[in-house]
Amino acid sequence: MEQHRTRPPQPGPRHGVPAPLPPQAARGRVRTPRQPPQVGQSPQARQIPPVRQARPVRQARPVRQRRAGPDRPARTPAPARRPASSPVQAIRRPPNPRLTGLGCGLFCAAVMLVLALLDRLLFGASQLVYGVLFLPVCVLTAFWVRRGDLVSAPIVVPIAFMLGLLPLAEGDGLGARLMALFTALATQAGWLYGGTLLTGSIVTVRKLRLMAQRATAARVRPPAGA
User: Fold this and answer.
1) Domain segments of the chain: what residues?
2) Contact 157, 199 (CB under 8 A)
């Protein structure tokens, strides 16, 4: 009798049964819910999971802008309004120029000489007009001098007043002109003293305000050891 040879069982995937996945692939495998088997479906088709379709990416909706119509007019941004400066604040605010002691003297002397020449051409060398124009020059000199040279303003004002009187003093010779100059200084001493006093008052007020500001800053400032 012939004996049939029986093959020993060989390791490997059986026919119709899928090979087991390695542990690395099993970890990254996505679990999907099992579906019930359908009639007439092979076992290989039953074990293949269905492929998921990627969802379409939603596009961002554009921002709708309201159209301007007869009922809804277009809105325009309102321009920024600057606070209107009142005339009182403009008067209280000191001018921007700041002159040194030398610059203050040159400014005052040059302005008084120009005013004296205009007075001689237009008003016939009237000393009253010259004295009246001297007061605004004193005020500007007191305001435009810088803080470090406040003391120089009351000194340069009388010198500028005397230099401005030179074109107004009339005489045939040098002696006559000097006599006319001293006479004008004596007769117009009221304007000279008034302008000098006005300049000194403004300078004194500015100096007091400066000292008050420094005292306030010293109080607010913390001590060095703190």
Assistant:
1) 96-220
2) yes
CA distance 163 to 114: 11
Provide φ and ψ at 145, rounded to 5°. -75, 145
Return d(Cα 166, Cα 171) in angstroms, integer.
11
Cα gap 196→158, rounded to integer Å: 7
Q: Which residues pair with 99 in a beta bridge?
A: 145
Look at the block and give the residue holding tokens 């088997």.
37
Structure tokens at 122: 């237009």
Which amino acid appears at position 155 of this protein?
Answer: I
- Distance separating alpha carbons of residues 127 and 168, to the nearest angstrom: 8
Percent helix, strand and coil across the chain, each to the nearest 5: 55, 0, 45
The Cβ of residue 77 has, within 10 Å, a number of other Cβ atoms equal to 5
pLDDT tens, position by position, 63-119: 565 555 555 555 555 555 655 556 556 555 655 678 898 999 999 999 999 999 999
| Residues 121/180, Cβ–Cβ less than 8 Å | no
Tokens 């002696």 found at = 175
Give the C-alpha separation, 129 to 208, whole Å. 33
Backbone angles phi, psi at 99, to 5 degrees: -105, 145
Spatial contact of 202 and 144, defined as CB atoms under 8 Å apart: no
